[in-house]
Amino acid sequence: MGKYIYELKMKVRDYECDLQGIVNNANYQHYLEHTRHEFLTSTGVSFAKLHEEGVDPVVARLTMSFKTPLRSGDEFISKLYLKKEGIKYVFYQDIFRASDLKMVIKATVETVCIVNGRLSDSTLFDQIFANYLENQ
Is 74 noted as a catalytic residue in this protein? Predict the structure, then answer.
């Protein structure tokens, strides 16, 4: 997996495509978010439970570079790794078409944490992500 610390395989559904027969650009954000949520779940943390406890990780900035379109029925692999920059966790996420491993999208997602309604550093995430950040 190289630099990646997590990957998730998914499949394009018909309704995610536009009239051109390719995945609508907005759906890539859903794929990226789903990957981050599943990654968090894999660490034993529930996104919903965090919210109940007053901890809300939110996207502060997102950039996407589209390389190759996905079409209905395509299987793809969403991969990520992360770094910490100040109070931000920056997720580097790439999506590859499964059939030929061609890059579909490159994205950078900057996230911050709102704790009890205030922008804050998160010791919880520092602990959860410690093993993933050691090799920066």
Answer: no
Tell me what percent of the chain is helix, strand and coil, each rounded to the nearest 5: 25, 45, 30
Alpha-helix residue ranges (DSSP H) falling in 1-136: 25-42, 47-52, 123-128, 130-133
In total, the chain counts a number of residues equal to 136
What is the tens place of the pLDDT at every residue in 13-47?
A: 999 999 999 999 999 999 999 999 999 999 999 88
Which tens digits make up the pLDDT trace of 55-65?
999 999 999 99
CA distances from 119 to 8, 50, 86, 113 (A): 29, 15, 12, 6
Of 18, 74, 94, 121, the active-site residue reads 18
Q: Domains in the chain, please, with CATH?
A: 6-133 (3.10.129.10)
pTM value? 0.92
